[in-house]
Amino acid sequence: MIRFEQISKKFALKGGNQKYIFRDLTLSVPRRNLAILGKNGAGKSTMISLIAGTIMPDRGKIIREGSISWPIGLQSGFQGSLTGRENVLFVCRIQGCSLHATKKKVAFVEEFAELDKHFDMTVKTYSSGMRAKLGFGLSMAFDFDVYLIDEVTAVGDVSFQRKATQAFEEKRNKANLIVVSHDMYVIKQWCDAGLYLENGICQFYENIDEAISRYQAM
Amino acid sequence: MLKPKVIAMRISNKAKPFVIFTRVIYALLIRELKTRFGEHRLGIIWVFMEPLIQLGLFITLLGYILKRVMPNVDYTIFAASGILTWTMFKNVINRGITSIKANQALFAFPHVKPLDAFIARVLLEFLIYSTVYLVIGVALIHLEYQVIFLKPLEFITCYICTFLIGSGISLTIMSISIVFQDITRVVGIVLWGVYFVSGVIFPIKMVPPEYRIWLTWNPMLHIMELTRMSLFPSFIGSIANLSYIGICTIFIMFIGLNTYFLMRKRILL
Predict the structure, then answer these.
(1) Which residues of chain B make contact with A151, given a CB cutoff of 8 A?
(2) Where does CATH 3.40.50.300 sit in chain A?
(3) pLDDT over 80 (residue A218)
(4) Angular region, B78: left φ>0, alpha ψ -120 to 50, beta rest
(5) First CA to last CA distance, chain A
(6) Residue B94 in contact with residue B171, Cβ under 8 Å?
(7) How far, in whole angstroms, is CA A62 from its chain's centroid?
């Protein structure tokens, strides 16, 4: 379970003003396959980052139970000056994998991401599609209780998308997803509940269709 | 009935914070090492050339004069001990400042915190330049320069304090640069200025006493004097004070960690 307790997060604007994204927000993120919907700038990505713990709230605390993935997104965390393989090794070291597990994970990512020779080239030479494939493959190599996905599912060619769908399908039995996407087709496919963000207020919709119609009425 | 069991298992599966910290530092050290020498082809040579060029320059420029000022002290060893300590100090500061920018992408992983990137970076610089120190020191001994370790413990204390002071300063500047970028531009110039009043290449005795009072506030000067006192039996320091170095180290580390603590939420990831 993930709980927000009186979370405030603000960003500085030009001219010394501040914009609150969330103000004293308290909520329990339900254990569902959840879509986060809202306008641009409503705080969807901020929410994902807060859940993951990559940004800190200005006030309040977040209680997390179980393992939560890093935000899987287009700006996934790869060091440009390292090769794809070295980046995968880096993540394995952080997660504390044994030597044997590391070998298996590297082989899995190499096979999954289909980068061929590029896997041993520096990440800064990658196209955005290749980067996303690597990021996606990497996150699939680890088992989390909750996967955070930030606008990434519509990446790659058709065959890769099919593969990604299949990988997700396997994970879905054991894990939950929290998805940010503007693609309603993706949302409908993956999520069964929705969270609509507007002006720092979260509205939970038990049924994903209701959430989508609220989003489209905007 | 199954539920408590599941939760207990989850908690025990979660690694302890210190274990995560060591893993992240280890991973970042390897990541830094892979790119540290890769940026320029001459990387690994430059690490040695930087202090050696300075050493050669100042031996030719000042060697003759200082032989008269300090007849009992071998100027080559004198300058080498100062320059090698300073090179470590300078590089810890300069590389530490850029640690956030250089590792920005990796903060997408929640375990990796900006402070970890900083620690890994300054630690690597410390290791690199300590190796350089050792290699050049051994080379000098082989060239039959006399090095007597009069007080090895004081020498090591000074060296470690240099590292800690450098880290503290670097952390302070790095944290300030999160909101005030321009500060990083001044660092290079200020460091050059401090270099000449820290007694790196000439003893502070050469400075007239009326100015010397002001210079004694500089902890690096104390470190340089104490380093020389631990190397040369005949070198008499005029100001060196070990407890002042200790207080400065703690104070500067405190400032650095505190500035980071205040600024960390403003780091944009």
Answers:
(1) none
(2) 2-69+144-216
(3) no
(4) alpha
(5) 30
(6) no
(7) 17
The answer to whether the beta carbons of residues A74 and A155 sit under 8 Å apart is yes
Exposed / middle / buried, residue A91 (Cβ in 10 Å: 0-12, 13-18, 19+): buried
Task: Write down the residue that tokens 């940026």 correspond to.
Answer: B39
**Angle, to 10 degrees, between the axis of helix B114-142 and the axis of helix B152-179?**
140
- For all residues of chain B together, what is the average pLDDT? 87
Q: What six digits make up the tokens of A28?
A: 């329990």
**Are the CB atoms for A10 and A21 separated by under 8 Å?**
yes
Cβ–Cβ under 8 Å, residues A177 and A149: yes
Between chains, do A78 and B105 touch, taking CB under 8 Å as contact?
A: yes
CA distance A119 to chain B (A): 16
Instruction: Supply B183's token pair.
Output: 């500060």
Please give the torsion angle defined by the CA atoms of residues B170, B171, B177 and B183, in that order, rounded to the nearest 10 degrees. -30
Collect all residues with Cβ–Cβ distance below 8 Å to B139 and sequence separation of at least 6.
none
Nearest-Cα distance to chain A for B260, in Å, is 14
Residue A25 sits at the chain B interface (C-beta within 8 Å): no
Question: What residues are paired with B193 via a beta bridge?
Answer: none
In three-state secondary structure terms, A80 is: coil
Chains A & B: contacts with CB separation below 8 Å: 72
Mind listing the pLDDT tens digit for each residue in B63-103?
A: 888 888 777 788 888 899 999 999 999 999 999 999 998 88
The CATH homologous superfamily of the domain defined by A2-69+144-216? P-loop containing nucleotide triphosphate hydrolases (3.40.50.300)
Summarize pLDDT for A91-123 with one digit per residue, the tens: 999 988 889 999 999 999 998 888 888 899 888
pLDDT tens for each residue of A57-76: 888 889 888 888 888 876 66
